[in-house]
Amino acid sequence: MATERTVSDLMSHPVVTAQPAETVAAAAQNMRESKVGSVVVIDHDDRAIGILTERDMIRLAAAGSDASTAKVSEWMTADPYTVAPDVEARAAFASLAERGYRHIPVVDGNGTGRKLVGIVSMRDLMRVAMIQPADAQAHEVPKGLEGVVVADTTVGDVRGLEGFYHYRQYSAVDLAKSRPIEDVWQLLFENRLPATLEEREAFAANIRPRRVIPPAVADVLPAIARAGEVFVPLDALRTALSQYGAAAGFRASHDIDHETLYDNAMSTCAVVPTLICALWRLRRGLEPVAPRDDLAYAANYLYMMQGEVPTPEYAAAVEKYLISTVDHGFNASTFTARVITSTGADLGAAVVGAIGALSGPLHGGAPSRALQMLDEIGTADRAEPWLRDAVERGDRLMGFGHRVYKTDDPRSLMLREVADSLGGDKMELARHIEATAVRVLDELKPGRRLYTNVEFYAGIVMDRCGIPRELFTPTFAASRVIGWCAHILEQAADNRLIRPSAQYVGPPPPQPVPAIAP
Ligand SMILES: CC(C)(COP(=O)(O)OP(=O)(O)OC[C@H]1O[C@@H](n2cnc3c(N)ncnc32)[C@H](O)[C@@H]1OP(=O)(O)O)[C@@H](O)C(=O)NCCC(=O)NCCS
Known about the structure:
Layout: H1 7-10, E1 17-18, H2 24-34, E2 38-42, E3 48-53, H3 54-62, H4 72-75, E4 77-78, H5 89-96, E5 103-108, E6 115-121, H6 122-130, H7 134-137, E7 156-159, E8 164-167, E9 170-171, H8 172-178, H9 181-190, H10 197-207, H11 215-218, H12 221-226, H13 233-247, H14 258-283, H15 297-306, H16 312-324, H17 332-342, H18 347-358, H19 367-377, H20 380-393, H21 410-422, H22 425-444, H23 454-464, H24 472-493
Parallel strand pairs: 1-2
Antiparallel strand pairs: 2-3, 3-4, 5-6, 7-8, 8-9
Helix pairs in contact: 5-6, 8-16, 13-14, 13-18, 14-15, 14-24, 15-16, 16-21, 16-23, 17-18, 17-24, 18-24, 19-23, 20-22, 21-23
The site of coenzyme A has 17 residues, from α23.
């Protein structure tokens, strides 16, 4: 086997550095000029005392701080994780993969003699780790790929420890509070928010006609809606969307230009809410309700579902929920959409695949399960014994805990505000159950940091706005399709086939092929 490559073979040097007292603006300019994504902050003895990354800049912008006065020391991550130059690349990757860092300072020596000698990117370490024989690397990639960085994206990111997530450079919660969903859609598709009402209207006008279901799809919807004894709305949606892509003549992303793929993406995102509502109504023996041009996105969605124009309050509440779920890091369905796009397949195939991934209970979840828990508890006085029993039995409390967020889920905080403003009989009970559950979990599962997740208040908001429980997850799909399509456009624009490896762990080959018994 070739000699192992070490961190020093892969690191870049000299390192772009900054002083702690420098302004963030000066450090940012240095990063831009040097075309790097981070700077290492050093003291006068050349010791690495911090790291400042593009993510910190976004955090600073999101906090509304002024980069020309903010000091590097205030925004850097202090005492960054470092690696020694003589460590083998595979070993460095194995120990750092789960931490989610992108750049690691390389430090030589020990004690006060520790000097910064380079910087190494996780990408480079990963590349080397991945070309080792499978038996050598098997233990290095965490099951479920948790923490493994598999792509670069400018669509958005989630920062679990801080309880923050963003779409491009804006806090998703700020967007939900200040912009309609069409603006967020434009931000994700075109990398910019509309600056004027005219720009906003031009984008919305492009969406409107695309909301109508074409005849070739409308004709088969009743059969799709009525297939199967049990109505599974996401299964019906993916079947209808498959027909839609074929009828609209979507072609392999590999064979079309950006404008055509963008056009496919606009049409798909626009028609999904109409399909969801039409399928659901047909299943219930009702006529589908056609979209109305005078209604904005969320109001139109509720109208097509319920057949009545909703109050502005309900439309606004649902719109905030929709915006808050447009994108959320490299979740399973987003990854699925990108893998399918990486093969050059058409956009319809990628979205149908993503819906398939979302339909799994470990992903699409079910905000309805949190609501079910509320129903089962029933009254405030039953909350404490019910919750205690459940946790002591080893059950999971629905709507609590998150793989990434180890603090309050920012979506849950926002939706709690929305739910509060809507009022309703469930709200008081929900607040009581939340407070009791957090206390009980802290007592019985100390140190696990379990708080409400997006599902807890999402269910309450949707229920209050008249969305039936079986449409909770499809409603989530109606907004997430915008995120999927943004990722599809990004993947197609800079594509490379995603084709990882697996470690073979079966009986050693080659064995003689046995003859069939007579
Ligand atoms: C979301 C979820 C799957 C994330 O789980 P995870 O990151 O894999 O966390 P783990 O399964 O490693 O759990 C860590 C510990 O917290 C406990 N825990 C996590 N979520 C819990 C919950 N909702 N209720 C009770 N205990 C919980 C686990 O039992 C485990 O305890 P242990 O250390 O004694 O074994 C999990 O929190 C969960 O099942 N929540 C309920 C379902 C839900 O609301 N899903 C929607 C998510 S948006």
